[in-house]
């Protein structure tokens, strides 16, 4: 499985940004894709995930109500719409793949940097 994240950039606090992830390779019928992020000097943390077949979504408490994860099955793409960004959202955002909801993340994209200025 290959994942490629893109769309990061520099925005001001309060603005919105959408990052995207192209998913390719030997995909199973059911799997989960998601976004994790790593801020400077901090551990990588979960942001959001979506089940590819059923569409179930999960979010970290810190982004609930601000971020929206979505997918396009036909394009094999996943998106993260980020609204109301704050400097605390500054991080490298990684898209990732796992085989099921309770499995560990197995494949990772290269990451895209999101910087939010105050």
Describe the structure.
This protein is mostly beta strands. It has no helices and 11 strands. The chain has strands at residues 2-6, 9-12, 17-24, 32-38, 45-51, 57-59, 67-72, 77-82, 91-98, 107-108, 112-117. A hairpin with an 8-residue loop joins strand 9 (91-98) and strand 10 (107-108). It is globular and about 40 Å long.
- Number of helical stretches of at least 4 residues: 0
Report the average pLDDT across residues.
94
Shape call:
globular
Helix-and-strand structural type = mainly beta
| Uncertain regions spanning at least 5 consecutive residues | none
Strand content: over 45%
Largest sheet: 7 strands, mixed
Tell me the distance between the termini. 37 Å
Helix share, percent: under 10%
Number of strand segments: 11
Specify Rg, calculated over alpha carbons: 13 Å
Order of helices and strands: EEEEEEEEEEE
Descriptive keywords:
4-stranded antiparallel beta sheet, 7-stranded mixed beta sheet, 118 residues, mainly beta
Structure summary:
The chain is an all-beta fold and 118 residues long. It has no helices and eleven strands.
Topology:
Elements: E1 2-6, E2 9-12, E3 17-24, E4 32-38, E5 45-51, E6 57-59, E7 67-72, E8 77-82, E9 91-98, E10 107-108, E11 112-117
């Amino acid at each position: 499985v290959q994942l490629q994240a893109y769309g990061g950039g520099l925005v001001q606090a309060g603005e919105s940004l959408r990052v995207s992830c192209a998913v390719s390779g030997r995909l199973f019928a059911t799997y989960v894709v998601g976004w994790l992020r790593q801020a400077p000097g901090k551990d990588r943390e979960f942001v959001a995930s979506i089940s590819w077949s059923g569409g179930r979504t999960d979010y970290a408490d810190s982004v609930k109500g601000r971020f929206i994860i979505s997918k396009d099955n036909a394009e094999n793409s996943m998106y993260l719409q980020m609204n109301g960004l704050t400097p605390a959202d500054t991080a490298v955002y990684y898209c990732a793949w796992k085989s099921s909801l309770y499995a560990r993340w197995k494949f990772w994209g290269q990451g895209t940097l999101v910087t939010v200025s105050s």
